[in-house]
Design goal:
2 copies of one chain form a homodimer. Chain A is an alpha+beta fold and 186 residues long. Chain A has a single domain, classed as Roll (Pnp Oxidase, Chain A). Chain A is built from 5 helices and 12 strands. In chain A, the strands form 3 sheets. In chain A, strands 1, 2, 3, 4, 5, 6, 9 and 10 form an 8-stranded antiparallel beta sheet that branches. In chain A, strands 7-8 form a two-stranded antiparallel ribbon. Chain A has a two-stranded antiparallel ribbon with strand order 11-12. The longest helix of chain A is centred in the middle third of the chain and has 9 residues, at 62-70. The first copy, chain A, is globular, with a radius of gyration of 16 Å. The interface between A and B is large, with 57 and 57 residues. Strand 12 of chain A pairs antiparallel with strand 12 of chain B. Chains A, B: InterPro entries: Flavin_Rdtase-like_dom (IPR002563), Flavoredoxin (IPR052174), Split_barrel_FMN-bd (IPR012349). Chains A, B: Its cofactor is FMN.
Amino acid sequence: MKNVYRKTAFPVDQARTYLEPGPIVLVSSQYGQKKNVMTMGWYTVMEFNPSLVGCMITAANDSFELIRKSGCCVINLPTYSMIETIIGIGNDHGSSVDKFKKYQLKYSDAHTVAAPVLDDCYANFECRLYDKKLLNTYNFFIFEVTYAAVAKSPKYPQTAHYRGSGLFMVSGETASYKKLFKRKDL
Amino acid sequence: MKNVYRKTAFPVDQARTYLEPGPIVLVSSQYGQKKNVMTMGWYTVMEFNPSLVGCMITAANDSFELIRKSGCCVINLPTYSMIETIIGIGNDHGSSVDKFKKYQLKYSDAHTVAAPVLDDCYANFECRLYDKKLLNTYNFFIFEVTYAAVAKSPKYPQTAHYRGSGLFMVSGETASYKKLFKRKDL
């Protein structure tokens, strides 16, 4: 990994700008001395303010317990250029491999939570567990985004969107249709 | 709308192929004589089998009550070529406008639910309300996909992915990385 981004704080209520299009993301977490990172495709924005994101994290993943116990994680947005790392992280189990070492992931302390922030990713959304009502039945965590950092450039990164069966859709251009919208708050 | 698709039944446990990449979708519903259609961007796949999809549908939307009362809807996948219809449907309120007439939406009966299927969309996912535990607190419906129909061609349609503020990301190519995956069931 050799991405070097200059990132700045980004309004948490605008997290949708980067998450709503549906890119695959990397979720990093830590509990005590254990830290891990996983690949995630099943999540959705749920609210602007508080800034909520609902995430499926299977209990079979090592990250599940780290996040449940620590009550926090970071949702990191990788670019398509990181596709081999994205897939590798999804292949490996945190219990048998130190994925940070194996994939040479540089990381920093988060601003608001106790979980590693992935430096090579385009954006980082620090998350605190907000509601665990669906945790037992569906492994569905509802997080509040407590801090966001986004790269200054490019404005919109090329992202990878998973279809299952090893297939990824690669994001294309972003176009403005602002003039067609009656409500400006959507 | 002039799309003419030849659609065939599609395995419901593979709904992710088209929904996981995160395209904006059109949700159609009906209760008694009232029917409606809305634009939706906040949803996620939650399970393969049963095939579950979690969806945020604000109570302020006319569709909310139709879906809550009828317990079903259809998630229709429009292509980018329908962008003006997608935005128009998002602008209008079902209480004051018949969106089916205004946007000349052709529709058919569903196979498994009492809700209109949008013929001009690339794919249709018929949904039955599966769990309403988060309905009061978050307006979050968990649906089971009970039947899916997908166009035979093209294999992957060009879709629109919303970023907020009138901006859409347009989907690009689909590439296979199957060889890099250790587990073939992901």
